[in-house]
Amino acid sequence: MKRSFLLAVCLLSGCKTGHADYGAALALVGYGLLWSGISRASGGCFAICTGMDICNTESGLCEPSPCGRGCGPGRHCDLRAPAPVCVEDDRPADLVTQPPPPDPIPDFIPQ
C-alpha cells in the first residue's frame, strides 16, 4: 500500500511542472530530429554510436561491437575490416600496409 501511494505521488507530481515552456521543448525535439535525419541521410546512424557500439549503415542503428568487451586470449581486434572483428593472433595487426615500391625512374641522360 505504501509503495503504491508513493508511486502515485511521484507520477502525479510530474503532471504539473509550473511554468513549463512547451514551445522550447518542441523546438529542441525538432532540432534533434532534424540532425538525426541529416546524419542518417549522409550514410551514418540516427544517433552517435559510442563506446562499445558500431554503426550499422544499413539499418542506421548502433549495434554492439564484436571487439567491445575484448576478444579473449589468443585473439585481437582487427580494425582494417569495415567493422572491427576479433581475429586469431596469427593474423598481423598492422593498421597500415606498406604500398609496393614505385617503378624505377628511367635514365634518359645520353652518355
In short:
This protein is 29% helix and 14% strand.
Please tell me about this protein's structure.
This protein is of the alpha+beta class and 111 residues long. The chain has a domain at 21-88. The chain is built from 2 helices and 4 strands, in the order ααββββ. The strands form 2 sheets. Strands 1-2 form a two-stranded antiparallel sheet. The chain has a two-stranded antiparallel ribbon with strand order 3-4. A hairpin with a 4-residue loop joins strand 1 and strand 2. The longest helix has 20 residues, at 22-41. It is elongated. The model has no long low-confidence stretch (mean pLDDT 76).
Which strand order does the major sheet show? 1-2
Main sheet record: 2 strands, antiparallel
Distance between the termini: 106 Å
Give me the count of strands.
4
Q: Rg, please? A: 27 Å
Task: Assess the beta-strand content as a share of residues.
Answer: 5-15%
SSE topology string: HHEEEE
Poorly predicted spans: none
Indicate the overall shape: elongated
Distinctive features:
about 110 residues; alpha+beta; two-stranded antiparallel sheet; two-stranded antiparallel ribbon; 2 helices; 4 strands
Element layout with pairings:
Blueprint: H1 2-13, H2 22-41, E1 53-56, E2 61-64, E3 75-78, E4 85-88
Antiparallel strand pairs: 1-2, 3-4
